[in-house]
Amino acid sequence: MRVTVIDYKAGNLTSVLKTLKHLGAEPVVTDGDWSLVESAERIVLPGVGHFAATERLDATGLTGAIRAAIARGVPFLGICVGMQWLYAGSTEAPQQPGLGHFPESCTRFAESTEKVPHVGWNSLEVREGSRLLAGVEPGEFVYFTHSYKGPVTADTAAVTQYIEPFAAAVERANVMGVQFHPEKSGATGLKILRNFLEMGR
Amino acid sequence: MLTKRIIACLDVHAGRVVKGVQFVDLIDAGDPATQAARHAREGADEIVLLDITATHEGRQTLLDTVRRTARELFVPFCVGGGIKSARDAEQVFEAGADKVSINSAALADPELISAIGSSFGAQAVVVAIDARRDPAAADPVHDAQVFVHGGRKPAGRRVVEWAREAEERGAGEILLTSMDADGTRAGFDCELTAAVSEAVGIPVIASGGAGTVAHFADVFSRGKAHAALAASIFHFGVSTSRSLKEELAAAGVPVRLPC
Q1: What global pTM score does this model have?
Q2: Which of B5, B98, B202 sits opposite A184 (nearest CB)?
């Protein structure tokens, strides 16, 4: 299984690549070569750091190539900022549009006495019908580290509670995103990535 | 619910895990990759690898160790010791670390915090602070003295103001070691930990003094810590992360179980 991993210079890719290899996939990395998106069997968009970094996807023309691949039905997984990019945008960088596959926008956690960023292991309430999260039992934990998040909507595949309920995962047909880091979430994370790799095979 | 993290710390010297200085000749604590994998299997929420010697010659050994340790590790992995520049940090990330911990280098050049954060994200930057209460200060806890170079040299900074500056400069977490409590196994310095945790908006990891399960429960409640670090408590077979977390859960502390 060849997995095209998109590099837009937002943080390091080592953990994601290592985990995909561990699961038997063959990751290939592109920071601008459309052909690797056009020929992709799976696309993973990782990302830590600032939403503004996604500007590079537009600058390199990868946004259009990804949009076309998604329309062809190629399974797509966004991780952390990569998930937030699937929405219309984020208040972290209001001038930078996201893909707009999901019409809402991401926002910062509300002011409270709790710490932001939300760092650590938190539990998932998985909604029925998620293919990505198949086999994840109620209350299984995954690792988060983020200050912005997507809203809970009909496309939400799992909800997590921190300060307020937010979308821990989003899923509509072949387009999926996780706010947490499956590559850092132990056996639960490996199960989720395996679901993504085996989907539709 | 967000759980309290139990972080297993491996002190590494010349590519081997070592224990408390007084025991180094007696017990070899083994290979870092093997030990990290064991801690993850036994329920640790995160692994910290500290290169306690961090000599220039040791840099390649450290990168090899990080690479080998990261290979089969699927929980967050933080590496510290001897990271003096954004380039050093980049090499450690490329070798497979998710976070770097910086201490003396951040005090010498506070801009290092934002330099690493802007390229790799705030979540990747842990600022480690070694502090000792200052009995001569008006507030011995808030004005605890910060030390550098493995606790050998005062940095001329006070713990709360330095923690706040680290946050402003873009640190994602603070790893706070109480030098008074370290090695005593008499409990964490909860007052010191709470003073720092209340002063900043980012999570604080408590370190130094772990000896019993009650010490962890105490630092999470009274100390307002988000995570706690332990080394010798595991090395000596006193406890695994899993058994520690089972006892904490019984005491009402939210922890990741089963794990």
Answers
A1: 0.95
A2: B98
